[in-house]
Amino acid sequence: MDRLLDLLASGKFLEATLQTLMYVVVAMGIGGAIGLVVGVALTVTRRGGLLQNRGVFVILNFLVNFFRPIPFVILIAALTPVARLVVGTGIGDRALMFVLVFAATFGIARLVEQNLLTVSPGVIEASRAMGAGPLRTIFTVLIPEGLGPLVLGYTFAFIAVVDMTAMAGVVGGGGLGNLALQYGYRQFNPWVTWSAVLIIILIVQLVQLLGNVIARKLLRR
């Protein structure tokens, strides 16, 4: 308990919380945007899609299926050389955020595809019948119609990225997961471990609640 109070007084819990949020915001901002593009491309280039293209679909589908199942801790090790080339280092916050963005991109791409496939084909056909081109249909019908499920999908992705940040210590990063391991688990201090866990649970619950509220309003339109 004394160790927990020391960490609270020193501001390490606040610092770790802000680090975790920074990791997640960067991963969801960049990975979320790229994942949206890839997910939309998967949806419209499949057979019967607005921009049917077997070659593009096969390549994108292969990349998503190849990278998405790789456990995050293994992905960190595998992408270390790539991280050095892209962000200039294979350790620390920049390397961690690079891998988080990479993992989020492929995970979100599949979520986007799955959610957009729930949009009624009749709505898309009606848009096409009214003379709308493929791109206009994508931006004015496909994405808006799938917005409610997409919000829920991104909420799920946010929580998954929070889980991934627990591995930050592998490449010298920080965050709540690393604090729980370093000062809690390794020093046999359950007070520290469970305090970090409770903060993570609070963040996840708030994001899930916000996502549910927004999705509910969108689905009622």
Automatic annotation (TrEMBL):
InterPro entries associated with the record: AA_ABC_Transporter_Permease, MetI-like, MetI-like_sf
Keyword presence, Nucleotide-binding: no
Principal subcellular localisation of the protein: membrane
Pfam families documented for this protein: BPD_transp_1
Regions that span the bilayer: 20-44, 56-83, 95-112, 151-171, 191-215
Membrane topology, record value: Multi-pass membrane protein
Protein location: Cell membrane
Gene Ontology cellular-component terms listed: plasma membrane
The ABC transmembrane type-1 domain, residue ranges: 17-215
CDD domains: TM_PBP2
Keyword Protein biosynthesis: no
PROSITE patterns (UniProt xref): ABC_TM1
GO biological process: D-methionine transmembrane transport
Keywords of this entry: Cell membrane, Membrane, Transmembrane, Transmembrane helix, Transport
Family according to the record: Belongs to the binding-protein-dependent transport system permease family.
Protein name in UniProt: D-methionine transport system permease protein
Organism: Leucobacter luti
